[in-house]
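We emphasize that the prediction below concerns an isolated chain of 338 residues; any contacts that depend on oligomerization or on bound cofactors are therefore not represented. The input was used exactly as deposited, without trimming of termini.
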Amino acid sequence: RKIDEVRLQVGESLKLSSQLDSALRELKLILDSSESPSSYRWALNHIGDIYKLRSNIDEALKNYELCERLALEANDRELIAEVSADLAELHMREAERLSGLDNKLSMHNQDLYKHYLDLETANVNESSSREARARSYRNRAKYARAHGDAEGSIYLYEKALEFQDRGTASHQLLIPYAKALRLVNRSEEAIKQVEAVLNWSHQINALRSEAIARQYKGLLLLERILSISSDPDAADFKDAAHELGLALKLHEEIGFQQGYQETSVDLFELEIQKGNFESGLQFLRESTLFEGHPDIDNQTMFVSVLAQLTTNGEGKRANRIVSRLKVLGIDNVEQQGE
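Result of the prediction step, given as a token string:
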């Protein structure tokens, strides 16, 4: 049992340091030979996390759902809260991804998102983990933000910060908090949160946190330029392009598909704001956003991107992209940015 517990800690540490292949090997050894039911259940959860990071949704669901069943059978409240949070976040991302591609399935994932969010909230009070409580507030804040309540979202993020361990500044909480600050025109405060994540990630070599922080810093710098000038010069976007380019490389290096997809959309917008329609289009084409849709036409692709942004509470940004596409002669996409 102690070997299983140590192996579980090693697997989790490898996962957090983005050494995903090594983490999978270690965690699957627990599944093969575990004498500890608790370690077995938690290994399933971590394996689900890894598959979710790689956007292998079917494998993530298989591991999470088995983990959920075993946790319920054991009445393991802490793990029930954890796997419910994981499933809420997975279905939230699937709802966003499928917007504009399969709206019926997107709504089904929205329903599952809310179901697991409620389950997480109901069970988290039984947990002694401060991290679990912070995550619960964070997930409720995300739901509020995506449904148009930015101020309520900020309140919930700040409640989550009360449970964050001192000295920790990972992306999981501070980047979504920065997103909410940005939505109420507190962009300078948002950049401070992003810089805190960058500084912390450099100290402990947390590549995923660094990649996400650079990604969001690039978007904030892009929006700063757009707020200063209605007709910026291409050179003005240099710093934003630098951050987004580094983010894209880091996401690719660590195999974080969601980050790669989101950064591709950011670079698409940056390029069209510079007037480079074809290079912007290429970022979308080379991303994994439309994997399984090789013949998708440009118009459908734009509509899908705009729908995903709107589902994520980014309606104003969707409108901004629509306006820019119109300037570049691309029409008939405005309905998704309304």
